[in-house]
Write a structure and sequence with these properties.
Distance between the termini: 59 Å
Number of strands: 12
Strand content: 15-25%
Largest sheet: 6 strands, parallel
Strand order of the largest sheet: 2-1-3-4-5-11
Structural class: alpha/beta
Order of helices and strands: HHHHEHEHEHEEHEHEHEHEEHEE
Number of helices: 12
Shape: elongated
Amino acid sequence: MNKKKSVTISDIAKRVGMTTITVSRALSKPDLVKPATLARILEVARELDYVPNAFARGLKRSESLIIGVITASVDNPFYSEMIKAISREAKQHGYTIMLVDTDELEELESKAVDTLLGYRVAGIILSPVSDEPSYQPDYLERLGNGKTPVVLLDRTLHDSPFSRVVLDNYHSGIQAAHYLLRQTPELKRLLVLTGPAHSRITVERLKGLREVLADHPHIEVEVQAGDYTLMPSYLHTLDYLAEHTAPDAIMGFNQLITLGALRALRMHNIAHDSLTICGIDRLPFADIFGVPIACVAHDASLAGSSAVRLLLDRLQDPYKPRDKVVIAGVLENG
């Protein structure tokens, strides 16, 4: 089957017997064209199923109505909610998003940046593959010296000049610790499942947790670092249960980590309500299945829409100082 050829302004011009300049003007500035001429051009455009090339038009005008979004965690429910909010907020301001999933790979992230810059997007919302201080990707200088505004979302690049939307990870760790102590007065053994050990998010959440537990030196805290996906926490919990009885409490540093722990408990026929479990950010649809796990939840929609608003601020004023929005967590089901 032959691929259908895209209809161009030249095709419309030939059909109506007018110049491409007249047709282009009718489609972009209809108020400058005589009503009869406009009606004829629009009629033919509909007949030919003409679709405007927004990208080409943006290049010609040196403007773009596309916002690039780069994420390494499109399978994370929290990120999915943020992306949906980004798209919704962008639409309200006349923009469309171009989403790139890097699948946690540095080389794909670098290519994604180059691709979006090649498309001359209006701006980029970036959640990098790593927020470890040592992570300094090769594209950092290109973005920092360029004219394309960038907003970092959730994960940040150390010592970078970009505006950012971040979670209050330190206080989320504090809230989780207080919940665990209230819920389990006789808490003696706590299994903590985290993201990468040197991730700033991990470090801040763990810092808040340890600060509260410092007044309870009798509590044995087992910290297992992995990543922010399900499988490492599942395996770490299985290993723990193979050598110990069930802990008094488990804390997971995001939804997927918490789900991994729940899966491991089920494999050992340990009821989730036989110990205290607390996670960071809510488990999607958990209440439907009667598993109301306590969590410190952050407003993902607010995070996504805030990122768009920061980006629009930079578009209006490229010289505006770097800005920062912090999303606080709220304890739920606790």
